[in-house]
């Protein structure tokens, strides 16, 4: 059987010494995101090393809140910080119409990439799904369970609904511009969909993602769209059917036999090696690669991790995984 295509979430990042060096040169993480020359350089670094089948634009899902007018900064070693959104008034003050224009340096990165990448290497553009982006906008930081956004959605439902509308429209415009600049595929990261009970999942993960996909199609975007609703579990088939994404990312907790039975005939599956096995390495890692590929034998499938590469990953393990995927 021919090997599936392979790329890895967070394939550009701190586990690579050349990334750390370029980030140093840029000054900070956000400076790196907004410098088209350096951002395209770090996007290309893992392609040069490993020859992945796809490249993912180097940027962040939190650039949209910043472009909407919310203050964003990164505390070294701690992660993102935003000035928390507190109510409907703060939502109404967001600059929906100006957001996509504020991100013009990102489209410049995309266009540099499309002309530097080998023709056979697909370029993936991305954004966060409205729910996941909103969780950071409301809490002002990462939290273990996104309680602030969940509570906000229960207590101030109209304001939360308005925030979803803002995020659907600004994200659609942002992704349209990425595609116009040369992105071949789009991925929507819904990292925090798994904290939602069923009705809330339908309301805040599925419905805004569906609206975003519909809006993109209405704007003339025809490229494939990958949805990644992390932690969605048994709600994955419903997510796929209702959002109309073309492919779905599976996190490491999704059982392979279940995914093959419930999803593989309906969509393209992508995943789902545990990022910590990529840290551990050895036979366990290589066997897990085999098990995943064998499970999806004969089905449309893209090999990936179940979440992003972590900083302590030895770079040589990444090379061993790519080699194993291609030469089994
Ligand atoms: O995958 C790639 O190579 C493309 C680039 C990319 C980054 N972030 C770069 C990044 C992508 C696709 C993202 C998505 C993203 N950003 C998500 C969704 C996916 C996921 O990982 O769950 C989320 C939730 C964010 C928000 C964010 N950005 C957090 C919570 C953090 C801090 C955590 C961490 O890993 O430090 C970031 C920072 C970030 N984004 C880094 C990178 C390479 C590390 C920054 C650094 O260099 O110090």
From TrEMBL:
<feature type="binding site">
    <location>
        <position position="191"/>
    </location>
    <ligand>
        <name>substrate</name>
    </ligand>
</feature>
<feature type="binding site">
    <location>
        <begin position="10"/>
        <end position="14"/>
    </location>
    <ligand>
        <name>substrate</name>
    </ligand>
</feature>
<dbReference type="Pfam" id="PF01208">
    <property type="entry name" value="URO-D"/>
</dbReference>
<dbReference type="GO" id="GO:0005829">
    <property type="term" value="C:cytosol"/>
</dbReference>
<comment type="similarity">
    <text>Belongs to the uroporphyrinogen decarboxylase family.</text>
</comment>
<keyword id="KW-0210">Decarboxylase</keyword>
<protein>
    <recommendedName>
        <fullName>Uroporphyrinogen decarboxylase</fullName>
        <ecNumber>4.1.1.37</ecNumber>
    </recommendedName>
</protein>
<comment type="pathway">
    <text>Porphyrin-containing compound metabolism; protoporphyrin-IX biosynthesis; coproporphyrinogen-III from 5-aminolevulinate: step 4/4.</text>
</comment>
<dbReference type="InterPro" id="IPR000257">
    <property type="entry name" value="Uroporphyrinogen_deCOase"/>
</dbReference>
<keyword id="KW-0963">Cytoplasm</keyword>
<dbReference type="InterPro" id="IPR038071">
    <property type="entry name" value="UROD/MetE-like_sf"/>
</dbReference>
<comment type="subunit">
    <text>Homodimer.</text>
</comment>
<dbReference type="GO" id="GO:0004853">
    <property type="term" value="F:uroporphyrinogen decarboxylase activity"/>
</dbReference>
<comment type="function">
    <text>Catalyzes the decarboxylation of four acetate groups of uroporphyrinogen-III to yield coproporphyrinogen-III.</text>
</comment>
<feature type="binding site">
    <location>
        <position position="60"/>
    </location>
    <ligand>
        <name>substrate</name>
    </ligand>
</feature>
<feature type="domain" description="Uroporphyrinogen decarboxylase (URO-D)">
    <location>
        <begin position="5"/>
        <end position="14"/>
    </location>
</feature>
<dbReference type="InterPro" id="IPR006361">
    <property type="entry name" value="Uroporphyrinogen_deCO2ase_HemE"/>
</dbReference>
<keyword id="KW-0627">Porphyrin biosynthesis</keyword>
<feature type="binding site">
    <location>
        <position position="136"/>
    </location>
    <ligand>
        <name>substrate</name>
    </ligand>
</feature>
<feature type="site" description="Transition state stabilizer">
    <location>
        <position position="60"/>
    </location>
</feature>
<feature type="binding site">
    <location>
        <position position="307"/>
    </location>
    <ligand>
        <name>substrate</name>
    </ligand>
</feature>
<dbReference type="GO" id="GO:0019353">
    <property type="term" value="P:protoporphyrinogen IX biosynthetic process from glutamate"/>
</dbReference>
<keyword id="KW-0456">Lyase</keyword>
<feature type="domain" description="Uroporphyrinogen decarboxylase (URO-D)">
    <location>
        <begin position="124"/>
        <end position="140"/>
    </location>
</feature>
């Amino acid at each position: 059987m021919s090997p599936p295509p392979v790329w890895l979430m967070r394939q550009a990042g701190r586990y690579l010494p050349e990334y750390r060096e370029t980030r140093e040169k840029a000054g900070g993480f956000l400076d790196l995101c907004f410098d088209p020359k350096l951002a395209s350089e770090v996007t290309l670094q893992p392609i040069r090393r490993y020859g992945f089948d796809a490249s993912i634009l180097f940027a962040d899902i939190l650039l949209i809140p910043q472009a909407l007018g919310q203050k964003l900064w990164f505390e070294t070693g701690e992660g993102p910080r935003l000035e928390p959104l507190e109510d409907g008034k703060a939502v109404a003050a967001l600059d929906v119409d100006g957001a996509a224009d504020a991100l013009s340096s990102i489209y410049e990165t995309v266009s540099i990439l499309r002309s530097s990448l080998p023709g056979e290497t697909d370029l993936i553009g991305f954004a966060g799904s409205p729910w996941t982006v909103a969780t950071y906008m409301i809490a002002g930081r990462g939290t273990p369970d996104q309680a602030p956004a969940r509570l906000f959605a229960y207590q101030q439902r109209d304001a939360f609904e308005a925030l979803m509308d803002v995020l659907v429209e600004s994200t659609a415009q942002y992704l349209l511009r990425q595609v116009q600049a040369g992105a071949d595929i789009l991925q929507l990261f819904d990292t925090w969909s798994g904290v939602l009970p069923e009705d809330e999942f339908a309301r805040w993960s599925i419905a805004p993602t569906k609206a975003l996909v519909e809006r993109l199609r209405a704007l003339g975007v025809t490229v494939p769209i990958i949805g990644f609703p992390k932690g969605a579990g048994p709600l994955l088939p419903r997510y796929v059917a209702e959002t109309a994404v073309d492919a779905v990312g599976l996190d490491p907790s999704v059982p392979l036999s279940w995914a093959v039975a419930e999803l593989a005939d309906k969509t393209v599956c992508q995943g789902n090696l545990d990022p910590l096995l990529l840290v551990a390495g050895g036979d366990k890692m290589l066997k897990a690669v085999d098990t995943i590929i064998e499970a999806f034998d004969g089905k449309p499938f893209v090999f990936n991790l179940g979440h992003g590469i972590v900083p302590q990953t030895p770079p040589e393990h990444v090379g061993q995984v790519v080699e194993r995927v291609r030469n089994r």
